[in-house]
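Module 6 notes. Inverse folding takes a fixed backbone as the condition and produces residue identities as the prediction. Think of it as a translation problem where the source language is geometry and the target language is the twenty amino acids. Below is one complete input and output pair. Work through it position by position during the lab.
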């Protein structure tokens, strides 16, 4: 098993940052050809998703849709820190993703990439990658 830690700076209150390259680099470094990679965010207001990489409007539309569904400025939220919207969005997206490794590469569909999803930025964030051979 191999374990990697990454630091990421987010620049906006809500954004999706492609991190496929970092994870693929970890896989290469590990030398694992067949197995799984588990990617985990230890934050309650940031998570991961796998989605389209070809059209950047997809990311914009996702952020727009989630903001409309769980608005930042909803005055009905009761959480004192004022970031309930970020907690809800992270719960919907999830704190982790599990990826299949085959022949030393992540198995993705042609249009897929892994995105770190920030919902309470800008912040300095950490995420972890655990690679399991098998």
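Target side of the pair, the amino acids:
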């Amino acid at each position: 098993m191999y374990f990697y830690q990454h630091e990421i700076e987010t620049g906006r209150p809500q954004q999706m940052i492609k991190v496929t390259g970092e994870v693929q680099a970890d896989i290469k470094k590990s030398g694992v050809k067949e197995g799984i990679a588990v990617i985990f965010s230890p934050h309650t207001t940031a998570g991961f998703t796998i989605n389209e990489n070809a059209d950047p409007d997809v990311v914009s539309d996702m952020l727009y849709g989630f903001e409309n569904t769980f608005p930042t400025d909803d005055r009905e939220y009761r959480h004192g820190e004022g970031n309930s919207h970020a907690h809800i969005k992270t719960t919907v997206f999830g704190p982790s993703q599990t990826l299949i490794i085959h022949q030393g590469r992540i198995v993705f569909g042609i249009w897929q990439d892994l995105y770190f999803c920030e919902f309470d930025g800008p912040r300095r964030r950490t995420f972890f990658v655990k690679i399991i051979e098998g």
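Reference fact for the lab report: The chain has one domain: 2-133.
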